[in-house]
Amino acid sequence: MTSPTSPTPALRVAFLGLGVMGYPMAGHLLRAGHTVTVYNRTAAKAQQWVKEYGGACAATPAAAVRDADIVAACVGNDNDLRSIVLGEQGAFAGMKADAVFVDHTTASADVARELYAAAREKGLHFVDAPVSGGEAGARNGVLTIMCGGDAPAFERVAPTLGAYGRAVTRIGEAGAGQLAKMVNQICIAGLVQGLSEAINFGQRAGLDMPLVLDVINKGAAASWQMDNRGQTMIDGKFDFGFAVDWMRKDLGLCLAEAQRNGVSLPVTALVDQFYGEVQALGGSRWDTSSLIHRLRVLCGKA
């Protein structure tokens, strides 16, 4: 793991994908003193970023990455990632020799290994580096970053990733970062379902749930989810970041990987089904804590 507090030399960096995560992450890079060029599929978003932060934007990934020492990306899924990396206008076509591509997309371990191999054939480096911490973590520059790839490439990019990561850790070889993110999402799925059941149970029992959570959060039941989502779940507010649609995409990756390696994920599969029911209730863009809404509907209290 590297400390994000050490000063880093100014580099030429490209950032591809300016969604709710990538937009502030790219901003942190520029504020850290790097020369930043951005690309976004919707050009107006890239122009807006330049107006807000400075730097430059480019019309294609290949143009954005030209002369960059490090290229970072944060897009939606495996196919989105391939679309900005491969092909005549893709990042690999424009990157200079020995440059490092860092992928912050939550994607499959398979695509990480595929693009790692493609990068090595072109004399480039590839690090899969999915993040945890949500939109707030990106805005505040305190993401947890889980990396897979060659150790020398990781050591080159880790200080720069400290611009938006409070913990930047190499887990192992190519694909290991994505597998670690799957572990993260499996943990979160179970935690949020458990917290949903607990709050719904307590409310049905007539307890003062803010008081109850305050008490039990000082003991063995304490968690980030309870700290940050407990009260909003009590209040029925679900507009705090990571959406149900995105969580289902991530859990799909977990379940597919589990099928490949022969691991049983019964709780994860069940919670994925519950998130599907939340989508059917109109909650596709609610945050992941909206699992409790499903329970309230079942109880006739929504």
Automatic annotation (TrEMBL):
MF term (GO), any: NAD binding
Keyword Iron-sulfur: no
Ranges where the 6-phosphogluconate dehydrogenase NADP-binding domain occurs: 12-172
Keywords of this entry: NAD, Oxidoreductase
Keyword Glycoprotein found: no
Active-site annotation: 181
One GO process term, biological-process aspect: organic acid catabolic process
Pfam families, sorted: NAD_binding_11 (PF14833), NAD_binding_2 (PF03446)
Annotated ranges, domain 3-hydroxyisobutyrate dehydrogenase-like NAD-binding: 175-293
PROSITE patterns attached to this UniProt entry: 3_HYDROXYISOBUT_DH
Annotated PANTHER family: 3-HYDROXYISOBUTYRATE DEHYDROGENASE-LIKE 1, MITOCHONDRIAL-RELATED
Family, as annotated: Belongs to the HIBADH-related family.
Name of this chain's protein: NAD(P)-dependent oxidoreductase
Organism per entry: Pandoraea nosoerga
